[in-house]
Structures are given as C-alpha cells and as structure tokens.
Amino acid sequence: MYGLIGKMRAARGKRDAVMDVLRETTGALPGCLSYVIAIDPVDADAIWVTEVWTDQASHKASLQLPEVQAAIAKARPFIAGFEFQVETQPVGGFGLPRAEAG
Amino acid sequence: MYGLIGKMRAARGKRDAVMDVLRETTGALPGCLSYVIAIDPVDADAIWVTEVWTDQASHKASLQLPEVQAAIAKARPFIAGFEFQVETQPVGGFGLPRAEAG
Lengths: 102, 102
Prior knowledge:
The structure is a homodimer.
Chain A: E1 2-10, H1 15-25, E2 32-40, E3 43-53, H2 56-62, H3 66-75, E4 79-94, H4 98-101
Antiparallel strand pairs in A: 1-3, 1-4, 2-3
C-alpha cells in the first residue's frame, strides 16, 4: 500500500471552502482505500489529509482524473501552501478494506 | 470525530517487533473507526500511526483496556521514543464507516 500524510494551510478564512472541495471530490477513486480530511483544533487555517492507496501508481493516476483536476483548480485559490507531507507504506491496522489490510 | 497522527521510533532493529504488537492489538476497539500502521520508506526505524475515533473519550478509554495495556507493556522495550504527535478533528472523507463519515 501507499500512504500520504499531509498538512495544508488554507488562505485566511478559506479553510471551510477548501474542506468543501475536498469532501465533494473524495468519492470512490480507483485504488483509494482511505482518505480522511481533518481540521486542526489548535490551528484554524490548517487541514490534515491522510490517504491510503493500493499503490503509488493509483495515487498518481488519480491526479489526472477530470474530477480531481477540476477540484484542484477550484481549491487552488483558497490554499496558501503545503507545510508538511510524508509518504508512508501502510502495512495493516484496522478499518481498511479487508483484502488490503493484511 | 477525534484523530491522532503520530510517528514513533523503534529501538534500532526493533521496528518489526513493534509492528507485530500493533497489528495483533488493533482489532475492533470500541469507538475506533480507523487505525493505520505504516512504515517510513526513508527512515528504517520509524512507524507512522494514523487513528480515527468516534470521540476523544473512546480513545482515552481504549488505553485502559487489558489487551491494550498488555500491548503497551509488550512494545515498550522496543520503542525508542515518540517524535511527532498531532491531534486532529476528522470531519469526513472516504473509507470511514458510513454513519460517521458525514
């Protein structure tokens, strides 16, 4: 599996606008096992996104999907920057689709 | 919902021992919606854990469960430290149990 943990910063006052775009977009994208969007209780403009994909190729391919391209274009004006991003290799746990969770 | 994103560091060469304990323990704990355990492809002793709980009280209560207490005791000798931990407030996304994903 392929994982991403990232923190983005919305432009001042635009966090909810970014969240709305993220929520509209994160349906069942091919290869996406989990995509959790969270706010930060102590940082009003921050958004944490944690993702699990079957593999890195699925994540990369998702960025080319028309609905994802449209979402990126829609959210971009509201995003001030990306502060943190790490790639991980999820190996198991609880709550992932059973066949993938190992 | 209540979320945690954390990075722990295993003692040198003990990452897999910690992973084994985490995998054995993370069954269906009350209030746990997602618990993903990941290795770091560029940091051999690091383990990333991303958690989603129905609420903070459920997470806190889980730490008192006998099986979790036993796992903590079992893993502790293999853990060098915790390098990063952030609390989040997950609000939606994909892959969480439907009733909670909002």
